[in-house]
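Okay, any thoughts on this one?
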Amino acid sequence: MNADQQKTTKDLLLSRFKEEPVTIVKKNIADVIGSLGSILIPNKEWNELFQFIFQATQSDNLAEKELAMILLSVIIEYFTDEEIKLYYEQLNPIVENYLKSDIPSLKTLSVETVNNLAQTPAAFTVFKKHKDLIGLVLNALDHSNEDLLLKIFGTLTDLSEIKKILKPHLPNIVEKALMISGNREFGDNLRQVTLLLLQMISENYARSMIKTHGMNFVDKIIEVGFSIASEPAEDYEG
């Protein structure tokens, strides 16, 4: 693909992404942008992509901010270590700011960005350097939004084996996961995700948690597990 063809393709993709009214289609276009970006960004052949994200996140228009965060939440999964090092330093203040936002859409898209960031090879480096991220993700919990809760606890589960990242936040994580997994008002899928996280914490952090908090937290996890197991089968029927 020559330079002119490249420019035409990039401009068309960004234009279609901006104009597409259906979110799922918009995210599919963002996937294509991410795939192409994984080829062009390392060669610094698509700087306009990041210019668009930076400019749109600074806009006073909420729709433009959402557009930028949809794109970022998808393409970050395609970043190599080098792109993370090169661009994430500038992006992190935006992500952290939106995690603290009172606007549900920006908060959710920021959680999705962190969730996809957790899938990248650079996750350990980023979370180690930006120590506030996990706490901000936990503070983004909204008990009225189960989709958001699933994303948050899914992210924590993905990070559960990186001990240096999760260990400082364990008491808070355990408390919130126990509250949700033991509450039958939440959906079964969410409760099972939080229970899985608790099981992984028990496997990976039992010694340090027992040393710090005694057997209390283990007893609570076992109690919640038995409680779920003894619930009537019809509770799990659709």
Residues 141-238 form one domain.
